[in-house]
Write a sequence for this structure.
């Protein structure tokens, strides 16, 4: 099976069961949402896929390759790029050089990589700021930079961790259009964690819902938002 | 390639660089023996600061034990020359390789067990210190009594065995200082250089972008160690005497990084600018306190106190070092001083 498969993964930090027996599939070229309230284990799930932690139990495979135990750079080499929820720009480097570092993963030649970095920077609307140091960017721009840098590595699967938080509604719509475009035109598979429901509803073909580290629902966005278990975890028992 | 790098230097910068190089090339015609030795000391600081800067300024790994690599280069080449008559240039290859291997070992130890930042720096100090104690007891290189190279007629200059007058050493040090500057310029615009900068800025983000951080950090340590060892070779053949207590001392490790810190960590010109600031001021200081010593005042270590003061001033007023400030002052500004 190509695409990403997550089978029964668990992760415990000391006493805290952060992720428990979570399984889902991200089909090739798919656009899948991962939602849930704060502390539901979404980012931990990302970190388990991206190689930051190894799962205590379960298995993650991508395109038939087992990812368990691989380091983050090896996961990236397998074709998976991720963004960080708490952004991690290379602060002292220019916006262009930040993206260039990502491009150098896919392209050994520096000047060719720089050209590609320039194109990506332009597409994400950071063109005017390409020579600024990344530390001087606003938070929404830093989120865009995270996406640009990850795209530089030419990923087959893109893991997006709340890249639309803090964007204005029109900017959200632009980002949604952008992701749909790279998904459709470049065939990049996307798994996104997102709190901005406007984006999830517009983008995701299929949604997986986590709460307290466990999967509580999955399905199309329309169905999931009517699911009583989902409503309960977001709004509390009384509201249902 | 050289053309490409120079293209990034503003025209006025090129002019200053050319003037500085011309002045340094012509200097031995005009200065006396003392000033020549001070200039050699400037190159010593500039070269070693540059070598240290690769590890700290580029890859973000703090070493406070670079005297170790310096000493490995100095002792390896001197032992090969004295006992086997091997040319210092081959000694440099051997010493450089040896230092790179030791650097790789220390780096692997630190990075594998995730000893980072200050703790890694302490590890580097520890290795330098116990190598000092080891060499104190290595009798074939003189032990704690010192190791001396035979001085044969300073009138004839033999570049092959590095036996000759200070002027010869002046040009050799100058060539190395220019060489390492060109090398660092090349590194900074290479794939390797960008990976180092990424690791320096944010290791986790770098790794997420596919960079094998362990491997590239080891590269940085190895290259920095090998270049530092080459400096040790030049030092050994210029000074002709080696004492473990002086060669491997923590003071030397600190001296090496002062120029880079004062000039600007991570910048290309920083170590050079820092060396030109520190050395002459340090020498002036020594000259000024000399008469006081005659009056019975105990002023040992006054230079170190002065260097310390310089660092404090830099930290307070110009955290990024003198070079970024100077860069703007010279009208070369277009953003960051490289």
């Amino acid at each position: 099976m190509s695409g990403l498969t997550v089978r029964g993964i668990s992760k415990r930090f000391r006493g805290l069961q952060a992720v428990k027996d979570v399984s889902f599939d991200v089909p090739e070229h798919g656009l899948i949402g991962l939602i849930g309230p704060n502390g539901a284990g979404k980012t931990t799930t990302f970190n388990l896929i991206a190689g930051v932690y190894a799962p205590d139990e379960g298995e993650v495979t991508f395109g038939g390759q087992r990812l368990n135990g691989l380091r983050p750079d090896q996961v990236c080499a397998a074709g998976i790029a991720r963004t960080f929820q708490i952004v991690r720009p290379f602060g002292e480097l220019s916006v262009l050089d930040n993206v260039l570092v990502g491009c150098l993963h896919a392209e050994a030649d520096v000047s060719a990589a720089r050209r590609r970095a320039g194109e990506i920077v332009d597409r994400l609307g950071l063109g005017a700021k390409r020579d600024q140091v990344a530390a001087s960017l606003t938070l929404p721009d830093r989120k865009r930079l995270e996406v640009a840098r990850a795209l530089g590595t030419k990923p087959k699967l893109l893991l997006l961790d709340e890249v639309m938080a803090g964007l204005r509604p029109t900017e959200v719509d632009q980002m949604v259009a952008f992701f749909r475009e790279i998904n459709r035109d470049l065939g990049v598979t996307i798994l996104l964690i997102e709190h901005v429901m406007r984006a999830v509803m517009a983008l995701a073909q299929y949604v997986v819902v986590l709460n307290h580290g466990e999967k509580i629902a999955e399905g199309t966005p329309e169905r999931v938002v009517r699911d009583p278990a989902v409503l309960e975890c977001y709004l509390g028992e009384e509201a249902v | 390639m050289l053309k490409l790098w120079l293209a990034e230097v503003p025209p006025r910068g090129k002019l200053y660089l050319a003037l500085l190089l011309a002045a340094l090339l012509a200097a031995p015609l005009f200065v006396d023996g003392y000033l020549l030795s001070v200039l050699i000391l400037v190159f010593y600081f500039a070269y070693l600061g540059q070598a240290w800067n690769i590890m700290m300024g580029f890859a973000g790994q703090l070493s406070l034990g670079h005297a170790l690599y310096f000493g490995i280069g100095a002792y390896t080449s001197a032992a090969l020359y004295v006992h086997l008559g091997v040319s210092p240039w081959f000694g440099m290859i051997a010493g450089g390789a040896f230092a790179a291997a030791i650097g790789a070992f220390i780096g692997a130890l630190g990075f594998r067990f995730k000893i980072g930042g200050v703790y890694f720096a302490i590890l580097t100090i520890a290795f330098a210190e116990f190598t000092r104690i080891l060499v104190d007891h290595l009798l074939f290189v003189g032990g704690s009594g010192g190791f001396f190279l035979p001085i044969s007629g300073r009138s004839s200059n033999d570049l092959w065995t590095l036996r000759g007058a200070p002027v010869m050493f002046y040009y050799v040090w100058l060539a190395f200082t220019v060489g390492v500057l060109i090398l660092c310029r090349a590194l900074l615009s290479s794939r390797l250089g960008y990976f180092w900068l990424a690791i320096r800025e944010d290791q986790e983000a770098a790794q997420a972008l596919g960079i094998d951080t362990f491997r590239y950090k080891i590269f940085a340590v190895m290259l920095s160690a090998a270049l530092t060892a080459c400096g040790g070779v030049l030092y050994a053949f210029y000074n002709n005497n080696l004492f473990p207590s002086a060669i491997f001392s923590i003071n030397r490790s600190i001296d090496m990084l002062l120029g880079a810190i004062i000039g600007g960590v991570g910048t290309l010109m920083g170590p050079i600018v820092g060396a030109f600031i520190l050395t002459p001021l340090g020498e002036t200081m020594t000259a000024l306190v000399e008469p006081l010593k005659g009056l019975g005042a105990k002023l040992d270590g006054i230079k170190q106190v002065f260097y310390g003061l310089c660092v404090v001033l830099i930290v307070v007023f110009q955290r990024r070092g003198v070079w970024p400030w100077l860069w703007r002052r010279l009208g070369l500004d277009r953003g960051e001083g490289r």
